[in-house]
Amino acid sequence: DLRAQLDNGGKLPLPDGILINGRSSGAALKVEPADQPAKDYYLAVSSRFTSKILTTTGVLHYNNSIGPVSGLIPNGPTLMSWSFKQAREIRTNLTTNGPRPNPQGSFHYGMINITRTIRLANSAGQIKGKQRYAVNSASFYPADTPLKLADYFKIDGVYKPGSISDQPIKGGIYLATSVMQADYRAFVEVVFENWENIVQSWHLDGYSFFVVGMELGKWSTASRKSYNLNDAITRCTVQVYPKSWTAIYVALDNVGMWNMRSELWERQYLGQQLPVAAIQQHHLILILL
């Protein structure tokens, strides 16, 4: 029913509520004591950057609890700066080692030369009177032949490499079987630019990447001065706040075609996605006798 609504050119409504472990209220999570008195505590969750704020509560139940939850539930944060600050404070602990006799060491991603910068801007619009979403103005439309099969069996004519720009472009959105081609083992900077008023969520299949920066406003080369090139965390999904940008570093060391997409299902289904093809270069050596 939801898919038919989108196929007919409509949008999905706001969710009815938020669930914790499948429950709209009363979910209890049993935990070991931290440094707090032995009782139960509220777990409050509220939506962010939505026209209607949705809220639900659960309970953190200490296994030695001697009392129920009490007191008022605090309001959620309202300033976007709070979200940026929280996101930046999640960092890798470089003082720990892996479970092996010798120290594991760290991956010094900040010391690797960037071979390419890809800027991806999400947008919304209509094509022939129906709602669509796009990346760099290209609204993904699947081909009759699955792209992974076309890539693996080298089937010509299914898609055209370079059918999507690696920089935002002006103008209306258009339908395309868009594929971003990149070199295998390249070390790439990807900047997600969100010029809309809602929070975005991006996922990349097949890889983990370093989240090196996020700020309010437009990205420029000067924005790199604010990057965390020391102890950023690795993720496969990242948020982009309204009217903001988020930058990641990724080593394309997984050959083949992998999907980069919005994690907002409506936007993904209606075109806010693109395959990224990491192509292994073949070198021909001629020996003249």
Automatic annotation (TrEMBL):
InterPro entries: Cu-oxidase_C, Cu-oxidase_fam, Cupredoxin, CuRO_3_AO-like. GO terms for molecular function: copper ion binding; oxidoreductase activity. This is Plastocyanin-like domain-containing protein. PANTHER family: MULTI-COPPER OXIDASE, MULTI-COPPER OXIDASE TYPE I FAMILY PROTEIN-RELATED. Residues 144-277 form the Plastocyanin-like domain. It comes from the Eukaryota. SUPFAM superfamilies: Cupredoxins. Belongs to the multicopper oxidase family. The lineage of its organism: Eukaryota, Viridiplantae, Streptophyta, Embryophyta, Tracheophyta. It holds the Pfam family Cu-oxidase_2.
